[in-house]
Each structure stands twice: as structure tokens, then as C-alpha cells.
């Protein structure tokens, strides 16, 4: 009886903690959305509660008069290309490092792990020189190589660990059937590591989509600005129309939420999977 009460108390405590954490996570989103439907002055009256009158003009003005769709298209292109390259290259590297164990492979693996601890922003000046030498400066094509370099370390770490947990019998059966390494990768490995691929994609999606540092350094042309960089146009020297800024930020958050909801089941499997050994 006493043990069951303790167990019930632990469940109650865990639910309270989860409810508090949910509030902490959702509260900024609540403030963002409700204030995007207010005027510039009414935001300061009560920024934490719903508006008395809903101002949809913030969204119509941003979509009609601004370059929102141009910025959105640029961000979508850059992030999509970067995520595809990161997941592809990380899965290939993870497959090689997991299957072919050697001293050199171990050194390469720890080299990638070290990349998780060293921020790429410390090399901004050298990266700027490289992009200028390649003729990519002031174009959106300068961003995918940077984002791939940012995302590969964690991608290799996740996928290598996941592939190492796959049963050895799969490889032996495929080799006996005469499958090459390429066929084993494409027909056996890729279908099994979809949760890990989703985890890698979602983990890198947020920093890629919300990055302001490298677009600010590399891009001045309005036609090539990303969405978050385009938002800076709304910041004035003496005053800022926060209602329109929040409207743009709300619209920019929609693709991230949609992708997360679409891939949430695979993401959870990738995070919680210990192994698939049977």
C-alpha cells in the first residue's frame, strides 16, 4: 500500500513538472502570436493577453508590401538543400565509420565529435575570405556549405551510433546474397535509419532556419536575403513596428512546426531507440 502511494506521488510530481515545462515552452509562442494581432501601441498595454480587437492588417501588409515571399523562398531553398546534404553525407559517413572499424576511422569519428564542441562562428573571417575567393559572396549559395559543415558533426554522431546498433546478421545475409556495399546502404541501411535521419534533420532545422549570423555577413543583396535577415528591415533607428515584426516571425515559425509535426513520430523513435537487435 505504501509502495503504491509512493509510486502515485512520483507520477503526480512528474506530471506537475511536465505541465510547468509545457507552460515555459508554450508561453513565448503565445506572446508571439497574440501580439502579432495587435497594433504597435496596444502591444504595450497588456502584452500577455489577447487583444480587444484583432488586427489582421499586420499580416496583409507584410505579405502585400514586403518581400516576404522572396525571403521565404530563399530560406526554404537554403535550408532544404542543406538538410538533404547533411542527412545524405552524414548517413554515408556513419555507414562507413560503423562498418569499417580501423584506427583511421576512429580518428575521423572523433574529429567529427570535436566539431560539435567548436563553434563554426569563430572562423567567420576566414569563411568570408573563402566565399569571396569562390565567387559566392552576396548570394544564397554561400550558405549551404556553411550549414552542411555545421550539421555534419551531430549528424555523423547520431547516425554512426544508430547504424552500429543494427544487427550484424543483416549484413551477413546481404553479403551472402551477393549485395554490394552500395546496395546494402540503399536497400537495407536507409530504410532502417529513417528515425535517425528524421532526428538529424529536425535537430539541424532550427539553427539553419533561425540563423542570422552568416546571412548578415555574406549577403547584402535584397534578392538573396533570408527570412530572418529580411526581418531586420522592419527595425528602425528610433522606433520599431513590433506588430509587423511579430507577424513575420509567426509566419516564419509555421514551416518549422509543420515539419516537426510531420516527422515527430520518426523523431521520437530516433531519440528513444536503443537498438533494433532482435
TrEMBL record:
| Organism of derivation | Sphaerochaeta halotolerans
What is the recorded name of this protein? Carbohydrate ABC transporter permease
Keywords, ordered alphabetically: Cell membrane, Membrane, Transmembrane, Transmembrane helix, Transport
TM annotation in the entry: 12-33, 76-98, 107-128, 140-163, 184-206, 242-262
Q: Which Pfam family, an example, fits this chain?
A: BPD_transp_1
Please name the PANTHER family in this protein's record.
ABC TRANSPORTER PERMEASE PROTEIN MG189-RELATED (PTHR43744:SF12), ABC TRANSPORTER PERMEASE PROTEIN MG189-RELATED-RELATED (PTHR43744)
* Recorded family membership: Belongs to the binding-protein-dependent transport system permease family.
Top-rank lineage group of the source organism? Bacteria
- Metal-binding recorded as keyword: no
Mind naming one GO cellular-component term on file for this protein? plasma membrane
